[in-house]
TrEMBL record, chains A, B:
Compartments it resides in: Cytoplasm
Swiss-Prot/TrEMBL catalytic activity: (2R,3S)-3-isopropylmalate + NAD(+) = 4-methyl-2-oxopentanoate + CO2 + NADH
Binding residue positions for NAD(+): 74-87, 279-291
Record's protein name: 3-isopropylmalate dehydrogenase
Site feature location: Important for catalysis: 140, 190
InterPro entries, sorted: IsoCit/isopropylmalate_DH_CS (IPR019818), IsoPropMal-DH-like_dom (IPR024084), Isopropylmalate_DH (IPR004429)
GO CC terms in record: cytosol
Entry note: cofactor: Binds 1 Mg(2+) or Mn(2+) ion per subunit.
Main location (coarse class): cytoplasm
Enzyme Commission identifier(s): 1.1.1.85
Subunit description: Homodimer.
Transit peptide found in the keyword field: no
Length: 350, 350
């Protein structure tokens, strides 16, 4: 399996190698061979080549079987023009170019860490939801322009567009995922206000006929934000459009209280991309303080989703759970009475 | 003071009269005269006249000094065509027609109710934030259409528009409100992706020069959703565009654990509108079970914001706090060992 490594910025170059070590260990155990090749992305790529997403990086991604990304961005590149900034100049085009139309974001609470949440333990313990966010449509990729107004001032105009096909393919993933889990799908929209949401709902409802075994429900996005706080365990699989998904996935992650633990997958095209959901954390970069677990669990997700290697994936997840049970923690999830480890040492324990 | 009463649907016709009783009591105490006139809105108006926002209702609003709304909507009207549904056919046009461009949504935790939140008590006790949501622009009032696609299927297209003037007037309210409170304003946008957010940020930054005493910060909406869960007390006044505000205000309300307590004001035009943030709760309508406090506190907000009557407003708020301290509760906020009251009895206690 050829894996493209895109460490990126901040703690990215620290955590990606840790996931590689875990993949190598699991490779030995299960007799699998991984080939790794590294490329630049984000601020690091901008510094070296003048662009946050060099052609060579895209090319490597295209001829790999899967991609493991660290994180991009940092204050150093915040004042570049928007299209050269790591987030907008690299992440968004990467998603579009590779056709990664669905972002899979599990928000699950590890039993050892339920008390780390700002929510009461009984509200979040055992939480296990999967949010599927549409990733290559909507406001993110609409037309955008400015107009000068006759009386002075300006007007910004941008479009939110969705087609039947764009909605259907991501909704289908939602139904398939629900089938593999608890057979409940919540589609989130704002159909009482948005035309694109009305089309979204129509398409999802039509598709539901193919999945009579899945219980489909619809919820408005504002109510959904409330319900995630009120009673998150009511959800199983959720599917929503790009901008709502951006907000709701971050909200859901925070419910777990330990975003340093959460992996993600972006799928849909020929090759899928895996990354921790946390950012590049420039403040702790280079200090052996970063939590490598989200990246390690992203590698496990890669094994399961891209390579169909269920047992090796479960073996990584089991190792992570065990190490946490044994009381090992990185700084971000440290609790009284537990043993604090650095990035490298946590990986060794796993 | 001429007050238009729009009870609406569900529990609306139960709670609005309770707020009227409180206003009459406070009128007696402070020697104020209120004139009340009632009109139909929402499903009740549709049933009686064929439209959820009859001309007579708009006309009453225009010649009143303030409006007190209960709630609109219910399953009975959910299958009408969108423009006749209570929410879209009455609420949105009412906002637009009356020029109510700013929605003020306090999310404050009453000390007696801090334990009702799903968040840990130390995270929310003492919480007191004010969110200002732009209410007559953005995706809500953009152009919307459908296209048939050549290969089959459809495309929905809608626009998100904001002008300098629309942003400036609501941002100004944010700065003014921050000045009256703790002098900190958080502007929430998605400037790393949206053109309208970039204009938003430019306009807010420019306006900040007039308010050197207010500390202005910017936050992306996805991060803001996380921060509201992680540490909501970091915020004082927040200002954001219509759709983000729809999501964030509901999220913030839920943090308090008692949305039956939260009032709101929609201001900007000649006359302002006050309403509880909760819905019409058709399931408990007509049973003397509804919590009238959000509506009563909306009336207090009216006294303060529309009429400048600080002392009478504070007197209502004080009465509510005292009744809660004494252990009186409606069903929605009932806690072990407290005394449960009905809608009417709770109002009497207040
Ligand atoms: C950095 C930003 C453009 C990006 C997004 O909004 O998609 C990020 O928030 C994410 O969720 O991956
Ligand atoms: C009912 C709906 C159209 C409305 C909105 O989205 O503005 C509601 O959610 C609100 O916040 O007042």
């Amino acid at each position: 399996h050829k894996i493209a490594l895109l460490p990126g910025d901040g703690i990215g170059p620290e955590i990606v190698p840790q996931a590689v070590r875990v993949l190598e260990a699991v490779g030995k155990k299960f007799n699998l061979e991984f080939q790794f090749e590294t490329a630049l992305i984000g601020g690091a790529a901008y510094d070296a080549t003048g662009h946050p997403l060099p052609e060579a990086t895209l090319e490597l991604c295209r001829r790999s079987d899967a991609i493991l990304l660290g994180a991009v961005g940092g204050p150093k590149w915040d004042n570049l023009e928007p299209d050269l900034r790591p987030e907008r100049g690299a992440l968004l085009p990467l998603r579009k170019e590779l056709g990664l139309y669905a972002n899979l974001r599990p928000a699950a609470v590890n039993p050892a860490l339920a008390s780390a949440s700002t929510l009461k333990e009984e509200i979040v313990s055992g939480l296990d939801i999967m949010i599927i966010r549409e990733l290559t449509g909507g406001l993110y990729f609409g037309q955008k322009h400015r107009e000068e107004l006759p009386g002075g001032g300006q007007k910004a105009v941008e479009t939110l567009e969705y087609s039947t096909g764009e909605i259907e393919r991501v909704a289908r993933l939602g139904f398939e995922m629900a089938r593999k889990r608890n057979k409940r799908l919540m589609s989130v929209d704002k159909a009482n206000v948005l035309e694109s949401s009305r089309l979204w709902r129509e398409v999802v409802q039509e598709l539901a006929k193919e999945y009579p075994d899945v219980e489909l429900n619809h919820m408005y996005v504002d109510n959904c934000a409330m319900q995630l706080v009120r009673n998150p365990k009511q959800f199983d699989v959720m599917v929503t459009e790009n901008m709502f998904g951006d907000i709701l996935t971050d909200l859901a992650s925070q419910l777990t209280g330990s975003i340093g633990m959460l992996p993600s997958a972006s799928i849909g095209g020929e090759v899928a991309l895996y990354e921790p959901i946390h950012g590049s954390a420039p403040d702790i970069a280079g200090k052996n303080l970063a939590n490598p677990i989200a990246t390690i669990l992203s590698a496990a997700m890669m094994l399961r989703v891209s390579f169909g290697l269920e047992e090796p994936a479960a073996s990584i997840e089991g190792a992570v759970a065990k190490v946490l049970e044994q009381g090992y923690r990185t700084g971000d999830i440290m609790q009284p009475g537990q043993k604090q480890l650095g990035t490298v040492e946590m990986t060794e324990a796993i």
